[in-house]
Protein 1
Amino acid sequence: MNIEVWVTFVLVAVVATAIPGPAMLLVASHSISCGVAKTVFTILGNITGLTILSTLSVLGLGSLLIHSPMAFTAVKIMGAIYLIYLGMSMWRKGLSPVSAKANAHRKNVTSLYAQGVAVALSNPKAILFTTALFPQFIDPNANLLPQFLLLVMTFMFLSFSCLIVCAITVGRTFTAISSAKLYKFTGKLFGGTFIGVGALLATLKNGSA
């Protein structure tokens, strides 16, 4: 892979990772309620999920998802249910400042990591994106494995960078705020957004349909 192709991929991937989505919402909410340090585990979980999806797309399972309405619908519905569940939980419980003792014991790093993985895997748009994106930058006449590893590592690095910037920015902003009403409002805002994203995901149509 020559440098021009890689730079073009980086530019496309930067735009893709910077667009707000479920992962960014989850990171923002965890940064507020758990702190930036613990939110790193959420980000690592999300990166793990994206790596799994990228691997599946390269193995050809992404194409199966695209061309199988039944498989696509199953993934879509499961993902929508999970996002709506997260939204309802956030709406009901709200967000608590990271300094709250009860909140500090409520989530451990394993739970944060698992939620990061689940949110990544719950979105079929991610596997459709990687299935469509990676082949555009791979030379079929060259060794595929090094190209795949370079693209995946680049994409994961950019995703991590974008999410950690989000965590730090949101975390620092809310650390300086002690308004209980704002935390309650933010919890409902994030929760309502998750519910909305889940509902929209349920209406997502397979590109082959």
Note: Residues 144-175 form the longest helix (32 residues).
Protein 2
Amino acid sequence: MISYSCEATVMFCDIRNFTMLFEKEDPIKAISFANEVLAVLGNEVEKNNGVVDRFTGDGFLAHFGVDGPSLNHAEKACRSVIDMRNCLTQINSKRYLKTENVLNIGMGIHSGDVAVGEITSGKITQKTILGDTVNTASRIESLTKFFTVDTLISESTKNHLVEEWMLQKMPLKKLKGIERNVQTYWLLPMN
């Protein structure tokens, strides 16, 4: 059994209104759509040395810096956001021409310590990450809906950034399951 901890950057990505888009459609169409969109977005994570840990139906959990030491895991996560935004623009252009609803995504990014391990159940063994950093990234992604922005990063991720990034400091906000208020930053579209 693999088990260790490391510092990494975690990203949650969610397709907005996925259920509404497919509530009256054949479920096979929803799977095909998720495959097309999530595969394209996941490829951008992988191009930036990230790993898609698992798909969540209408999104995914990804991490940077887990599969080998990386001093710039936060930079790689932010670069993948830029690339994912560009891909989404192309996807939406095609959808618009077919008079289909355009897509929006929400992304939450947080840096910190994660536990890496294998979970085994019967015939399935899955390597995954767990811990407060993962939970916080998920909560930050949920906060993108409240602020109506596509990507929020935590203060911890901001402090890991070496290059200059255009960020908008957001009001402090309490996250579900976290006692203290959390400072987040919108990763501005002009990056």
Note: The beta strands are 3-15, 50-55, 59-64, 105-121, 124-130, 151-154, 167-169, 173-174, 181-182, 184-187.
